[in-house]
Amino acid sequence: MSILVTGGTGFIGSHTVVELLENNEDVVVVDNFVNSSPDVIDKIKQITGKDFSFYEVDILDREKLEKVFEENSIDSVIHFAGLKAVGESVQKPLEYYHNNITGTLVLLETMRKYNCKEIVFSSSATVYGNPGVDKYAESLGRGKTTNPYGTTKAMIEKILEDLYTSDNSWKICMLRYFNPIGAHKSGLIGDNPNGIPNNLMPYIQKVAVGELKELSVFGNDYNTVDGTGVRDYIHVVDLANGHIKALSKLKTYNPGVYVYNLGSGKGCSVLELIKTFEKVNNVKVPYKIAPRRPGDIDVVCADPTKAKEELNWCTQKTIEDMCKDSWNYIKNVSLIKNN
Ligand code: NAD
Ligand code: UD1
Question: Ligand 1 test: best mutation among 15, 29, 33, 34, most atoms within 8 Å of CB?
């Protein structure tokens, strides 16, 4: 039996495929490369020394997706495929709703057709909105989302709940990620978005390698340790392992809808992240203080207790590890580009 990974050449998907292969799972990957590239396939094979099936498929393409289910014996799906840029989603809401929501509907209909009813879905802490508490527990439920990207995550969660209500044989696990950063220790795979990055670590990386002049720190007047925004950063390999734990537990669970936060439970400010990056990598990250970014809040931090108790999962890696691995990866990318 195989595990289908949608979006498996993307940032989190590729790290999860590595961990799955290292756990001797049979893996089938689909991706349309809208935000990744084919060379990731070889990188995964290089890291693991293992092979897997890959299909260049847009999950909106029902015929091609059905062919993947025809040709493989798939009993569970980890669903990463989706567009994820918050700012772009405000500019292109129809594209985001179509890709993320319709794509998920086509995937779920195809799964149902082939009697595959086990899915782990990439959700996000963004579904909590701004609950105004120090740590977000799953019991808070979904809040008000502030952009189309976040709304697609909240809507897909609701679709999955309604699906289970209509058919009690589904096993559904929704994982709410906090802020994934870092990279595989090999330096072969990581996060390197095209163009000017929106997120903090990809921006720091580009400043550190000299591709961008300086980082803008969005606001230093928040109610936090040093006035800058605090987030719960999680190493992408810890996050990938959260999926392995979730999937293996789901196999032992009764059908139902399960939801878990994947975060460390520890906050780190923008300035703390910059300072750690500079210190562990011995590199400068020039920055200036800039106005707050609209929509940002002071603190976003997980209460990871439920994942610890029920999945026996917690983060292992530190902020130092995340900074070292992010730097190791981007230095490699930069080296290849300049040769
Ligand atoms: P990513 O963009 O690196 O990976 C997503 C992958 O899906 C890409 O390889 C892309 O080419 C593929 N894809 C997109 N639409 C597709 C389609 N219609 N058909 C086939 N492939 C398609 O993003 P990521 O950071 O790895 O995120 C993975 C998932 O986790 C996404 O659903 C994202 O929304 C969610 N998530 C990410 C974060 C984060 O900070 N990175 C936080 C919370 C949730
Ligand atoms: C953002 C999204 C969130 C999404 C996540 C991963 C918003 C409001 N939230 O989370 O929905 O799930 O990305 O894609 O966009 N910062 C700077 N300078 C920068 C970039 C960021 O100071 O150039 C600060 C931010 O103000 C924030 C922190 O760094 O305090 C983290 O920002 P970012 O990496 O963009 O993640 P989030 O905003 O937490």
Answer: 34
pLDDT tens column, 211-246: 999 999 999 999 999 999 999 999 999 999 999 999
Q: What is the pTM of this model?
A: 0.97
Cβ 12 under 6 angstroms from ligand 1: yes
- Structure-block tokens of residue 336: 């290849």
Cα separation, 79 vs 16, in Å, equals: 11
Q: Which helix (H) or strand (E) holds 168?
A: none
Spatial separation of the C-alpha atoms in residues 225 and 228, rounded to whole Å:
8
Residue pointed to by tokens 């500079």: 278
**Ligand 1 neighbourhood includes 177 CB (under 6 angstroms):** yes
Atom 39, ligand 1: which residue's CA is nearest? 180
Q: Max alpha carbon distance in the chain (Å)?
A: 56
Whether 128 is a known active-site residue: answer no
Task: Say if CB 172 and CB 79 are below 8 A apart.
Answer: no
